[in-house]
Amino acid sequence: MKLGTLRGIGHNLADSVACGMGFMVGVYGMDIFGEAGRTAEGYIEVDFLTGATSGGQPSASLARGLRLYAEQALPKLCKSHGVSVSDFRKLTVRFRPGPIHGRFEVVVEDQDGRCSTAEYEGLPGRRVKVLDHLGRVRPK
Questions:
Q1: What 3-state DSSP class applies to 46?
Q2: pLDDT tens digit string along 85-112?
Q3: d(Cα 78, Cα 139) in Å, to the nearest integer?
Q4: Would you say 128 and 103 are in contact if contact means Cβ atoms under 8 Å apart?
Q5: Is the pLDDT of residue 36 over 90?
Q6: Cβ distance 91 to 48 under 8 Å?
Q7: Which of 6, 11, 29, 35 is most buried, judged by most C-beta within 10 A?
Q8: Which residues contact 60 (CB under 8 A, 6 or more apart)?
Q9: How many folded domains does the chain comprise?
């Protein structure tokens, strides 16, 4: 199993939540960036392996939608990619509002302890780019 595949699964789940329509679990409206912006913490972090959240407290409706992602969407997405949910040791996404849409950071760790962190912004979520010390554009 490739770590990039697991990161892609995490991105797909996060991007679906970020779009606000929840198509992976039926049509389920949610505004995670709006709710994150209204919390004192300024973010909502989701553990997609359990459906639990940390940081800001989501509404009951959003919390239910996030649990549906963990219970229904993750196993289906893993099966379609030829991996198992048990291949993940960690799959968390931190959602925070941004100037245009929002940003989310996907953290994935596999059972071998290899870890990957990638930050995305906008709709659909695209990797955040920065300039390196030579002035080249690189993923953050």
A1: strand
A2: 999 999 999 999 987 789 999 999 999 9
A3: 25
A4: yes
A5: yes
A6: yes
A7: 6
A8: none
A9: 1
Q: Whole-prediction pTM value? A: 0.89
Query: Any residues with CB less than 8 A from the CB of 136 and at least 6 apart, and which?
Result: none
Distance CA 80, CA 61 (A): 27
Determine the Cα–Cα distance for residues 116 and 95; give it in Å rounded to an integer: 17
Specify the 3-state DSSP secondary structure of 73: helix
Q: Which domain holds residue 107?
A: 3-139
Higher-pLDDT residue of 25 and 44 is: 44
Distance between CA atoms of 29 and 32, rounded to whole angstroms? 10
Q: Answer for the pair 110, 101: CB distance below 8 angstroms, yes or no.
A: no
**Percent of the chain beyond pLDDT 90?**
71
Taking every pair of Cα atoms in the chain, the longest distance, rounded to a whole number of angstroms, is 47
pLDDT given for residue 98 in this prediction:
83
Residue 54 vs residues 48, 94, 99: alpha-carbon distances, Å: 12, 9, 22
Contact of 33 with 116, CB cutoff 8 Å: no
